[in-house]
UniProtKB/TrEMBL annotation:
It comes from the Eukaryota. It comes from Raphanus sativus (Radish). It is found in: Secreted, Extracellular space, Apoplast. This is Dirigent protein. One of its GO terms (biological process) is phenylpropanoid biosynthetic process. Homodimer. The keyword Protein transport does not apply. InterPro entries: Allene_oxi_cyc_Dirigent, Dirigent. Residues 1-21 form the signal peptide.
Amino acid sequence: MANLILIIASQILILAAVVSAGNGDDFAKVIDRKLLGLRKEKLTFFRVYWHDIQSGSNPTSVALRPPVTNSSFFGAVFVIDNRLTTEVSINSTLVGQAQGVYAAVGLHDSSALMVMNFAFKTGKYNGSTISILGRNEVLTKVREMPVIGGSGLFRFARGYVEARTMWFDQKTGDATVEYSCYVLHY
């Protein structure tokens, strides 16, 4: 009789384990977007100037790894905390920082992989970010890179940016780049 009770109890435990394990589809569920405050999508345009300073006593762009050879940019990796301003002048109104890394990835061209966040520090967008990840063919007049996300007012962001070099100093590596940003968000 004790053996029968043990067998029945073990079968009940096995059945309970199988039923509770399910098929793994219960880890995700569809929710109403209104629970997250998501309403109608908006398109926001803004233009900022990205100041990449490698020279002087207070650089905002630092090489983590130098190029593989002196004749190529390939292999160089930089970490950045660049000013974002409202005008070409580095002393114009600061609206945020571009924080991230870029790496020279073109063996036969001057392209870079850009991985950065634009972290806004003023006005309505204070505390919000957009995330940019893409290929930047540096010597092309207009380069397009995707916006792959964001936070704060740019939560669920997507879109693209257009980059245009305003000036570049070959001797120091310093540059100012205009970023025209087209961002869809809720």
